[in-house]
Design a protein that fits this description.
483 residues; mainly alpha; 22 helices; 76% helix; Sodium:Solute_Symporter_SSF; Sodium:solute symporter; sodium transport; ion transport; sodium
Length: 483
């Protein structure tokens, strides 16, 4: 019951923040926070929103199969955030965009615009469903199953709570709730590490020495080009993962576009870009310490890496204090990504699909409708999931975010136009070709594609647009309307 009490208190704080920040909110407040957000608060909150409950549960378990090689991807993240800050943000601020996909309308026309927004909606529903599935599944398994609560009810209740505290203030509320949730997440992580070290009979310094000397602390892989853990495959993938999953993602960019100026938004982006290496190093170090604790206590390691942290932290094996910390950490990280996803989906539908950014009644209906869709996608993933959660997210996004990468690259790097009828065809065909190439590669050569599928997908979309496009760019639909 202590977990339920913890959740109840946590949600009371979120509702209080929502009440204070959501007063007199209109669509402008909901979509862009009136562009008054302090950059340092956006930066701190974005760390929690980017990490999500998936990282909290899955990354510690990565050491079981991949050691600490995930840090190679995080190093690529840094360059990716700089690219977003100094290439994409200036474009978005110059056009004063509410939805970043409006850029495609200005540059390539309505067909590219609607295609890009549609792929975002599909990608965000899919990715966010995977992330939020983590917290729902953990609560179900370790708490609610004992009371006979159906999983579907758990999902509806949790999504309903997110809808409740985001429905008024939107993005302005999220800047403040994400700050609170990021603080809770890191406090929980550090205190869990402290408790694990204590159960090992070590000080924090001794625990750090154990991690540094452990064979699972290997970070770099340069000698095997066939593995997913190869440095260059991970590093380059990390760059492009950030470009598409942050720079081309309305969810991540919407908060950055609430800053007062481009310069503040760039400071925000670069600041939290550097935070991912130490943050993920903490998660991976926790994984190494948990493996050492399992060895000390004679406990068999789980078959799935996602089970490593819950096996110790959610079962009461290390005491009720750790159970509470684990609950707070998972809920904080999961909700900070799920609530912003719901807000971004609402924004994209109102601005990009229906082109009615000032209709408050439509916004409320869409917000509720996206909440229902969110529930459906979570339940769908629950019925189909058979892979590691974090790998599932990145593999799915390699297919759904690839066309966005190709569309934006084509618009930014060329002066050519597009064939409007061919844009959606190319955007659908590119992921299908990638899937076929991945399957054939495994069968014929044994080569395993990793996150580089994202780059291949974007390249195919770019090539398709080039081959079917026009030599000289036409004027986007926004420009035509203004002309």
């Amino acid at each position: 019951m202590i977990i339920l009490y913890t959740l109840f208190a946590y949600f009371l704080v979120l509702l209080l923040i929502s009440h204070v920040t959501g007063g007199k909110a209109d669509n402008r407040t909901f979509f862009n926070g009136n562009r008054r957000s302090p950059w340092y608060m956006v930066a701190f909150g974005m760390v929690g929103a980017s990490i999500s409950g998936v990282t909290f549960v899955s990354v510690p378990g990565m050491v079981l199969t991949a050691d600490m090689t995930y840090i190679q991807t995080c190093l690529g993240f840094i360059l990716g955030y700089f690219a977003v800050a100094f290439v994409l943000l200036p474009v978005y601020y110059r056009l004063r965009l509410t939805s970043i996909y409006t850029y495609l309308d200005y540059r390539l026309g309505r067909s590219a615009y609607r295609t890009g927004a549609s792929f975002f909606i599909l990608s965000k529903l899919t990715g966010s469903a995977v992330r939020f599935y983590v917290v729902c599944a953990i609560l179900q398994r370790f708490v609610l199953d004992a009371f006979g609560v159906p999983f579907a009810f758990t999902v509806v209740a949790m999504v309903g709570l997110i809808w409740l505290y985001t429905r008024r203030g939107g993005i302005r509320t999220l800047v403040w709730t994400d700050t609170f949730q990021t603080l809770c997440m890191f406090a929980a992580l550090i205190l869990i590490i402290y408790n694990v070290a204590r159960h090992l009979g070590m000080t924090m310094g001794e625990a750090a020495d154990l991690v540094a000397s452990d064979s699972r602390s290997r970070v770099f892989v340069f000698d095997d080009w066939m593995t997913r853990q190869n440095f260059w495959k991970q590093f380059l993938s990390g760059i492009f993962i950030v470009i598409v999953m942050t720079g081309l993602d309305q969810d991540m960019m919407q908060k950055n576009l609430t800053c007062k100026s481009l310069r503040e938004a760039q400071k925000d982006m670069c600041t939290y870009g550097f935070a991912f290496v130490p943050a993920n190093l903490l998660f991976l170090s926790l994984g190494v310490l948990l493996v050492a604790l399992a060895s000390k206590e004679g406990v068999a390691l789980p078959a799935a890496g996602d089970e490593l942290l819950p096996m110790f932290a959610a079962t009461g094996r290390m005491g009720m204090t750790v159970v509470v910390l684990f609950t707070v950490g998972v809920v904080a990280s999961s909700f900070s990504s799920a609530d912003s996803a719901l807000t971004a989906l609402t924004t994209s539908c109102c601005v990009d699909i229906w082109s009615r950014p000032d209709d408050e009644q439509l916004r409320r209906k869409v917000h509720l409708g996206m909440s229902v869709a969110f529930v459906v996608f979570i339940l769908l993933f629950h019925s189909l999931n058979s892979t590691s959660v974090i790998d599932a997210i990145y593999v799915l996004c390699s297919y759904t975010y690839g066309p966005l990468l190709g569309l934006f690259a084509y618009g930014l790097l060329t002066r050519r136009g597009v064939s409007g009828r061919m844009v959606p065809v190319i955007a659908v065909a590119s992921p299908l070709v990638c899937f076929a190439a991945d399957s054939l590669s495994k069968q014929l050569t044994g080569y395993v594609f990793g996150y580089e599928l994202l780059m291949l997908n974007g390249l195919l979309t770019f090539a398709g647009l080039w081959m079917t496009g026009k030599r000289h760019a036409g004027r986007g639909s926004r420009n035509r309307a203004e002309g």
